[in-house]
Amino acid sequence: xxxxxxxxxxxxxxxxxxxxxxxxxxxxxNKGKLSIxxxxxxxxxxxxxxxxxxxxxxxxxxxxxxELFKVKHLVSLGIAGAYPGSGLSPGDVAVATSETYGDxxxxxxxxxxxxxALGHHLAGGNKGRFYNTLPLWAPKVNLWPKGxxxxxxxxxxxxxxxxxxxxxxxxxxxxxxxxxxxxxVAAMWGVPCSxxxxxxxxxxxxxxxxWVVNEAAEAAQEAVLKLIESRMLWKEE
Length: 237
What we know:
single chain, alpha/beta, Rossmann fold, 5-stranded mixed β-barrel, two-stranded antiparallel sheet
């Protein structure tokens, strides 16, 4: 069974290797910074979306993949920062078991309040209502470390901010800028969604010289290629 899948990444680097391997590749959509290619990987129909950075861009790309091209599984991929204590190091691959909007809520005199505390769910679908946290599909086999991810509009670049986030979300292992938006759209449509990230840096004091962006982007793509080739995205759903 070769159901069509949709891949969403923010920047071309995060899909460069996959695009180079696409067979029968051709443009499917192009508007502004958003471009979608159609092709085949291991005889599987694949739609590859370069969305642009951030939640809104990722949400638009995901919606188009579902509405225009009827993909049956969404995959968010790219680079991410790993939180201290996650056990991850730059160059590793991590798979999300859930995605959480880390800055949707309210800062009050009594501390940070999430969307449930405010009484507003962010997404709803055939699996119920979702507040800050959205479900994701992850392979049952332990090919790569797995755990909850956070999505933030502002990248964390100080020790103080990192520690504050860890206080709110102690189980989180990675930080992204798009993952929750892809999971959000998938939950609304009732379509499975996965997220695979290569670790480019540790979350904390910003030290761009220590990042391994190219290595992380390639590692994430290699992991996604393995999932597609193995047909694992369908076998375990």
